[in-house]
Every structure is written in C-alpha cells, then in structure tokens.
C-alpha cells in the first residue's frame, strides 16, 4: 500500500496539474486569450468526465495491465505533440487525451477496497483523500512557477512524463483489484446487471460527489473574487494554501476516528460552514473562515470513496469508481461558472453562498436517496462493520 500511494501521488499530482499546464501553454505558448485557454481546459475536462466509466469498465473486463499501457501511450503521444499542434487540432486532441487519461485515482481506490480489511478501509480512504489535497496544492503551483521561468512546451513535456511514469509504476506494481474471496473478472458473478448496483444509494453518492466538487471549485473562485474586490488578490495563494492544509489535517483526524459519519452529514456541514465565509473582507479573516470548510473537505471526499467501494460489487468496481470520478469532474467543470454567475449578479459573498447552497442541496438529495436504499445483509466475503451501511 505504501508503494502504491507513493507512485499514485506522482501520477495524481501530474493529472491534477494537467489542466493548468494546458491553460498556461495556450496563454503563453500560443499567445491566445484566457477564453481560448478555457476552451482547451474544457475539452480535456469533458474527456475526463466521459472516459472515467469507460476505462473502469475496461479494467473490470481486461485487467490493469491491459489498460494502463494503452492510456500511458496515449498520454505520451499527446503531451509530446502539444507544442506542434495548432489550436483547433489541440482541442480535439485534448478531448481524446481526457478520454484516455491514466486512471490513477480510480485504480488506487479500487486497490484500497481490495487490499484493506473492512475495519481499516476508512482510514486508508482518508489517507488517499489527503493525498488528493496535497496533489491539488502542489501540482498547479509547480506548473505556474515552471511556466513563468521555463518554456510552456517544456512544462507540457514534464507533465506528460510524470503521468506516464505514474501509470507505468502502477502497472509494474499491479495491485490486486479484488480480494481473495471476491469473484475473478471472468467468473459467472463478475458483472451483475447495472440495475442491481446502480440504485438509489449509488446515485446518492454520485450526486454528493458532484455537489462537493462544485462547491470546492466555486470556493476557489469566490476567494479570488473577494480578495480582488479588496485589492488583496496577491494573497489568494495563501488563503487557498490554508484551505488545503486544513483539509489535510481534517482528513488525518477523520481517519483516526473510531466510527464513521454519514456522507450526507459531512457534506451538509461543509455547505453550512462555507456560506458565512462571504462575510470576511480581509485575507486574514478569510483564512480563518475557509479553514472550517477545509477541515471538512478531505473527510467528505474520503467518505464518498468509501461508500462507492461498499456499494459496488467487485466485478463492477472499476466502472463504479469511474462514474464517481466523472461526477466529480462534472462538478469541477460546472461549479465555477455557476458561482461566477452568482458573483456577477450579486457580490463575492454571493459566490460563497452559491457554493454552500450547492453542497447543501446535494447533501439533502443524498440523504433522501440513501434512506431509500435497502440494507443488504453482510456476507463473509464482504462483511462491513456496524454503522457503515448507508452513504
């Protein structure tokens, strides 16, 4: 597990930074507008959202070593060719690269579900969420610093090399995606019908995943808008760093708790503490205000990943984690425009309110849907501790 988390940290940081690397290349390398850069980033993000479940289904059927080399090869070709592509072909290539992005995070979550005993799985998912927060803090910042001092083409090549290295490392480790008492990919019970597992409980988790990432992407935009209004936009990086550090601390503490909390409750609390952050009009107070949201971020994300692993049978775990990743990508893509509209028609404080309300709405929807989920009896092959039956 330590080796897997180390390798996946490299790949995940590069994947997280890939959108920023493409944005910086369009702006600095092609000397085009930020709107054009947003179009390239949107093409890559759309590919990511659509490709998650497709790659997960392929992994379920063919295994890791049949899928990871193909995705790594696609990434190598794309990032090597970025500096020679005109803008229009770059959009299409970015979409294809998103479809075939190395599935670092979904594979890591599948491996955690297979390798960890049920009693330790929540702590492992909390650590994986902390890893995600670290990659979010480190990846884009490194890309921005390197793009300012090096050629954007070199940055693109570096991101591609890191993604390929992460995928190759996971392929070499070849972590198990099913525990010893779960059916093999080719077994008769390998792929239950979608209606048996894509029920109210799973839809609740996917909805909350969408709402959570929409909230988080909206908070980033609201932070920048608030500080720009007060002439302190240079402190935005500090506030976002505080948000990330608080999330890391919250994730570590949540992993050490003796019992889990319902996912909808964590997301609801995250939405509630986000709304008052709009009252802060100085970067120091904004650091204090966003710390509460950060403290709940990693626990909420880890609870969702844990819920997906429990609700998805082993034979479709790849597809389920891919759907979860797609829901999160869609939330990131749509959160900023929604919150941006709220800021334009009101004030920066309206951005925090819109982000928080999005989280609250998703939490309420998740709560209502999860109450409709029938409780499945535990079996020796997949027995869960008490108190973890619903999202």
Account of the protein in words:
The chain is mainly alpha-helical. It folds into two domains: 2-173, MFS general substrate transporter like domains (Growth Hormone, Chain: A), CATH 1.20.1250.20; 194-374, Up-down Bundle (Growth Hormone, Chain: A), CATH 1.20.1250.20. It has helices at 2-29, 34-62, 64-81, 87-99, 104-115, 118-149, 152-173, 194-197, 200-229, 236-255, 263-274, 283-311, 317-345, 348-370. The longest helix has 32 residues, at 118-149. GO terms for molecular function: transmembrane transporter activity. Residues 371-380 have a biased composition (Low complexity). It comes from Nonomuraea mesophila.
Structure in a nutshell:
By secondary structure, the protein is mostly helical. The protein has helices spanning 2-29, 34-62, 64-81, 87-99, 104-115, 118-149, 152-173, 194-197, 200-229, 236-255, 263-274, 283-311, 317-345, 348-370.
Give the SSE layout.
Blueprint: H1 2-29, H2 34-62, H3 64-81, H4 87-99, H5 104-115, H6 118-149, H7 152-173, H8 194-197, H9 200-229, H10 236-255, H11 263-274, H12 283-311, H13 317-345, H14 348-370
Helix pairs in contact: 1-2, 1-6, 1-7, 2-3, 2-4, 2-13, 3-7, 5-6, 5-13, 6-7, 6-10, 6-12, 9-11, 9-12, 9-13, 9-14, 10-12, 11-12, 11-14, 13-14
According to CATH, what is the topology of the largest domain?
Growth Hormone, Chain: A
Arithmetic mean pLDDT? 84
Superfamily at the CATH H level of the largest domain?
Answer: MFS general substrate transporter like domains
Largest sheet: none
| DSSP E strands, number | 0
Elements, N to C (H/E): HHHHHHHHHHHHHH
Tally of individual helices:
14
Q: What is the number of domains?
A: 2
Determine the oligomeric state from the structure: single chain
Radius of gyration: 20 Å
Briefly note the structural class of the backbone: mainly alpha
Principal-axis shape: globular
């Amino acid at each position: 597990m330590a080796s897997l988390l180390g390798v996946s940290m490299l790949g995940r940081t590069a994947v997280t930074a890939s959108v920023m690397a493409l944005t910086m290349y369009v702006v600095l390398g092609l000397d085009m507008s930020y709107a054009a850069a947003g179009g390239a980033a949107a093409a890559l993000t759309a590919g990511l959202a659509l490709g998650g479940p497709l790659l997960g289904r392929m992994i379920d059927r063919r295994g890791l070593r049949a899928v990871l080399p193909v995705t790594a090869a696609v990434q190598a070709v794309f990032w090597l060719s970025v500096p020679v592509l005109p803008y229009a072909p770059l959009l299409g290539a970015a979409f294809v690269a998103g479809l075939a992005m190395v599935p670092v995070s979904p594979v890591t979550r599948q491996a955690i579900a297979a390798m960890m005993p049920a009693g330790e799985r929540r702590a492992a998912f909390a650590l994986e969420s902390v890893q995600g927060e670290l990659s979010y803090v480190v990846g884009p910042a490194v890309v921005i610093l390197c793009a300012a001092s090096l050629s954007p083409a070199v940055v693109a090549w570096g991101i591609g090399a890191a993604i390929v290295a992460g995928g190759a490392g996971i392929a070499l480790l070849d972590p198990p995606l099913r525990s010893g008492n779960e059916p093999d990919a080719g077994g008769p019970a390998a792929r239950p019908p979608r209606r048996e597992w894509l029920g109210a409980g799973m839809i609740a988790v996917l909805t909350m995943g969408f709402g959570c990432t929409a909230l988080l992407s909206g908070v980033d935009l609201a932070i920048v808008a608030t500080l720009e209004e007060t002439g302190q936009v240079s402190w935005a990086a500090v506030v976002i760093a505080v948000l990330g550090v608080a999330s890391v601390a919250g994730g570590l503490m949540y992993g050490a708790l003796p019992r889990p909390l319902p996912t909808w409750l964590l997301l609801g609390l995250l939405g509630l503490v986000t709304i008052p952050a709009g009252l802060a009009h100085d970067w120091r107070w904004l650091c204090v205000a966003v710390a509460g949201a950060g403290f709940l971020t990693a626990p909420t994300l880890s609870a969702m990943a844990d819920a997906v692993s429990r609700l998805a049978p082993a034979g479709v775990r790849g597809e389920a984690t891919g759907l979860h990743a797609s829901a999160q990508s869609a939330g990131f893509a749509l959160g900023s425009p929604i919150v941006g509209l709220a800021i334009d028609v009101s004030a920066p404080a309206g951005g925090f309110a819109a982000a928080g309300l999005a989280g609250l709405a998703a939490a309420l929807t998740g709560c209502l849907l999860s109450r409709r989920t029938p409780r499945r009896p535990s079996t020796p092959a997949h027995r869960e501790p008490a108190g973890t039956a619903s999202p």
